[in-house]
Amino acid sequence: MASIKVGVVTARWNNEITEKLEEGAISYLESCEGVEIFAALVPGAVELPLACQAFLDAGCDGVIALGAVIRGETSHYDYVCNSVTDGVTRLMLDYKKPIGFGVLTTENEEQALARAGGEHGNKGAEAAQVVMEMIGLTQEIPAALKTAKMMTAPAAKSAAKASAKKAAKPAAKKPAPKAKKTAKKAKK
After folding, report:
1. 120 included as an active-site residue
2. Which of 67, 89, 99, 108 could disulfide-pair with 103, CB 3.0 to 4.6 Å?
3. What is the total count of domains within the chain?
4. Residue in 3, 58, 76, 157 annotated catalytic
5. Could you tell me if 15 and 23 are in contact, meaning their C-beta atoms sit under 8 angstroms apart?
6. Which residues span the domain enclosing 22?
7. Within a domain: 182
8. What is the pLDDT of residue 145?
9. Rounded to 5°, angle at Cα 111 from 88 and 12
10. Which helix H or strand E contains 13, and what residues bound it?
11. How far is CA 50 from CA 79, 146, 175, in A?
12. Averaged in consecutive runs of 10 residues, what is the pLDDT profile of the chain (188 residues)?
């Protein structure tokens, strides 16, 4: 079985939270058979898309982006969240490869911790699960379509042959319909 290469990119900002996300993601990936894991740290969430792109350029089948953006007193939070979301989405569509979005966007640290192995689970592990599922799905869809095409091709060929055979047979001659008498006999 060919190995699946998965990159894990973790933002160091809010590392008390992001380290737990990374542990969850790597733990999940290690439980999967045939997965090679590559990891990198970046300063903050805004840098996640660039590192994800580097992993995709290097041949990874998928990447997991992990970070924690906690709302502060300014609009900086909104810019960071939009930047990361837009960057990751663009990469997935451009590369046609999955990126698990394990970037927490919370109002406070308590909410982030609850999602980094707390009462709301570990969003890092969930992002890893999503990447593995999407890698499988993106490989299955083309294979399924190819199989369907191969299965319908013989049926189409048979139908074409039958149609060609029918066209090649000379049409059976039918007697010409009798002309109807249109003239009425004149009454005497």
Report:
1. no
2. 67
3. 1
4. 76
5. no
6. 4-141
7. no
8. 83
9. 50
10. none
11. 16, 34, 80
12. 89 96 96 95 97 98 97 87 95 96 94 90 96 93 82 65 60 52 47
C-alpha distances out from residue 159 to 112, 145, 147, 151, Å: 61, 21, 19, 13
Task: Return the pLDDT at 4.
Answer: 95
The reply to whether 93 falls in a domain is: yes
* CA distance linking residue 164 with residue 153, whole number of Å: 16
Asked if residue 146 is part of any domain, the answer here is no
Quote the CA–CA distance of 188 and 183 in Å, as a whole number.
15
DSSP letters, 63-105, are EEEEEEEE--SSTHHHHHHHHHHHHHHHHHHHHT--EEEEEEE
pLDDT value of residue 108: 94
Q: What contacts 121, CB < 8 A, 6 or more positions away?
A: 115
How much is the pLDDT for 154? 63
What local confidence, expressed as pLDDT, does residue 134 receive? 95
> Residue 94 CB: number of other CB atoms within 10 A?
10
Please, are residues 92 and 86 in contact by the beta-carbon 8 Å criterion? no
DSSP H/E element including 8: strand 4-11
Average pLDDT score over the chain: 86
Domain with residue 49: its CATH number is 3.40.50.960
In this structure, is residue 109 part of a structural domain?
Answer: yes
